[in-house]
Amino acid sequence: PRFEDGASSAGTRVSHFLPTSRRIVQFSNGKGPGPDARIIYIDGAFDLFHAGHVEILRRARELGDFLLVGIHNDQTVSGKRGAQHPIMNLHERSLSVLACRYVDEVIIGAPWEVSKDTITTFNIWKVVHGTVAESDDFQKEEDNPYAVPKSMGIFEVLESPLDISTSTIIKRIVANHEAYQKRNLKKEASEKKYYEQKSFVTGD
């Protein structure tokens, strides 16, 4: 990894995007939960926000009255997925999620484990997770980040409407880039051959 221009030792790029309270408010719908609202909680990295994210958020929102989304910080995502992740930083990911019509509020830098304190503080009615995910931690018997909501009987796994993940998006980009490079190399070789074989043509 390169450490120029403020790059981190983890290898992820550092954005110079500077969020302000007003900018964050502009992305939010500004509505809070009602006194008896059924608050649904879903968390994740939400990197390279895509159609798969939108659809699982839609499904989650349909279960209750208010959708709260927890977004893990950059260090957590890097630790779980590798040094080259996330592609977008925490603030960029947060604003991408906030801009989604199904989201009511986000927790910026949400903890990896959903604790009893988090559930109590935000009055969470149900915690959900999609079947399409970058890791299977939500299915583990030990070190499960959803152990507390599971023990409380408020955890539910939702069938993800689309089989799309950030990893598949990245693989698609890389594959297209490689195809583009091969096409250009072939074109350059053809042009080089043409000029090498080119000969002078008289005007007679």
TrEMBL record:
What keywords appear on the UniProt entry?
Lipid biosynthesis, Lipid metabolism, Nucleotidyltransferase, Phospholipid biosynthesis, Phospholipid metabolism, Transferase
Q: Say which enzyme class the record assigns.
A: transferase
Q: Which organism is it from?
A: Raphanus sativus
Protein name (database record): Ethanolamine-phosphate cytidylyltransferase
What's this protein's family per the entry? Answer: Belongs to the cytidylyltransferase family.
Task: Offer an example of a GO molecular function term for this protein.
Answer: ethanolamine-phosphate cytidylyltransferase activity
State which Enzyme Commission number(s) the record gives. 2.7.7.14
Q: Name one Pfam family in it.
A: CTP_transf_like
User: From which residue to which does any coiled coil extend?
Assistant: none
> Which InterPro entries does the protein's record reference?
Cyt_trans-like (IPR004821), Ect1/PCYT2 (IPR044608), Rossmann-like_a/b/a_fold (IPR014729)
- Which pathway, metabolic or otherwise, does it act in? Phospholipid metabolism; phosphatidylethanolamine biosynthesis; phosphatidylethanolamine from ethanolamine: step 2/3; Lipid metabolism
State a GO cellular component annotated for this protein.
Answer: cytoplasm
Please indicate which superkingdom the organism of origin belongs to. Eukaryota
Residue ranges occupied by any Cytidyltransferase-like domain in the UniProt entry: 41-172
Q: Which GO terms describe its biological process?
A: phosphatidylethanolamine biosynthetic process
Keyword Lipid biosynthesis attributed: yes
Task: Describe the reaction catalysed, as an equation.
Answer: phosphoethanolamine + CTP + H(+) = CDP-ethanolamine + diphosphate
Q: Which CDD domains match?
A: ECT
Keyword Transferase: yes or no? yes
